[in-house]
């Protein structure tokens, strides 16, 4: 299967700072990328869908000004958690889908801890 | 709206025993169905998927799943469980949008394997 790389794998930041998480499709062009959030022992909740070159579409209840998503190229999407607070601590996972298939491939996830 | 139900939050089986993880979906059209496995702190790995055709789908690691439209189910099975199968399993559904795979996940089933 196609490879999606997420970086960093884990990050600790201070409350009030911003953190950027990268999601890269290594061997295919991803026209669409998805960002999920997973709380401990819970399922994945879709946060937003990003299409290359256009604004992200956020799910209901997700603050777009807090979770900034950029999908500037066909191989890279970034999620920036702005002014992070301890309640933003979570596991964030991206997935990417190409133009010729409907299967999405997942990154390995990023564990964010805000202290 | 589409939804996925995994009735079993936690299942424990002995190594070598058979396994069945239940998944029921609610969807107005023919769904695309997936089973993913997640090890602690890791991303998701695709076990198998159903798009169309044969309703019995073979996946990796000896897993299979059967799509039963009449029961709106897509249960995951394995004839003989190995200790390394201990993980969290997620069933997911999406509709074919042609290019994007916006997945709706079930709440997951945690599998524990006893030796």
Report on the architecture of this protein.
The complex is a heterodimer of chains A (115) and B (115). With 115 residues, chain A is mainly beta. Chain A is built from no helices and eleven strands. Chain A has strands spanning 4-7, 10-13, 19-25, 30-38, 44-51, 57-58, 67-73, 76-81, 90-98, 104-106, 110-114. In chain A, the strands form two sheets. In chain A, strands 2, 4, 5, 6, 9, 10 and 11 form a seven-stranded mixed beta sheet that branches. In chain A, strands 1-3-8-7 form a four-stranded antiparallel beta sheet, with no helix packed on it. In chain A, strand 4 and strand 5 form a beta hairpin. Chain A is globular and about 40 Å long. In chain A, 38% of the residues are buried. Chain B contains no helices and twelve strands. Chain B has strands at 3-5, 10-14, 19-21, 24-26, 32-38, 44-50, 56-58, 64-68, 73-78, 87-94, 104-105, 109-114. Chain B is globular. The interface between A and B is medium-sized, with 27 and 26 residues.
The amount of helix of chain A comes to under 10%
Radius of gyration of chain B: 14 Å
Structural class of chain B: mainly beta
Strand element count of chain B = 12
SS-based class of chain A: mainly beta
- How many beta-strand runs of chain A? 11
Strand-residue proportion of chain B: over 45%
The helix/strand order of chain A is EEEEEEEEEEE
Range of strand content of chain A: over 45%
Pair with the biggest interface: A-B, 27 and 26 residues
């Amino acid at each position: 299967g196609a490879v999606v790389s997420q970086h960093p794998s884990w990050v600790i930041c201070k409350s009030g700072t911003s953190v950027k998480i990268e999601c890269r499709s290594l061997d295919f062009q991803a026209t669409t990328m998805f960002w999920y959030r997973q709380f401990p022992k819970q399922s994945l909740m879709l946060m937003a869908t990003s299409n290359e070159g256009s604004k992200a579409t956020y799910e209901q209840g997700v603050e777009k000004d807090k979770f900034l998503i950029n999908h500037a190229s066909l191989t890279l999407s970034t999620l920036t958690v702005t002014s992070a607070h301890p309640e933003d601590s979570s596991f964030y996972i991206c997935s990417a889908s190409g133009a010729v298939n409907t299967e999405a491939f997942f990154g390995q996830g990023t564990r964010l801890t805000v202290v | 709206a589409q939804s996925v139900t995994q009735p079993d939050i936690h299942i424990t089986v002995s190594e070598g025993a058979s396994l069945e993880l239940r998944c029921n979906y609610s969807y107005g059209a023919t769904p695309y169905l997936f089973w993913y496995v997640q090890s602690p702190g890791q991303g998701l790995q695709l076990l198998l998927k159903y798009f169309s055709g044969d309703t019995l789908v073979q996946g990796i690691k000896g897993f299979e799943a059967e799509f039963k439209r009449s029961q709106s189910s897509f249960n995951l099975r394995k004839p003989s469980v190995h200790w390394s199968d201990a993980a969290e399993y997620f069933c997911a559904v999406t509709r074919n949008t042609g290019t994007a795979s916006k997945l709706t996940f079930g709440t997951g089933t945690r599998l524990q394997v006893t030796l």
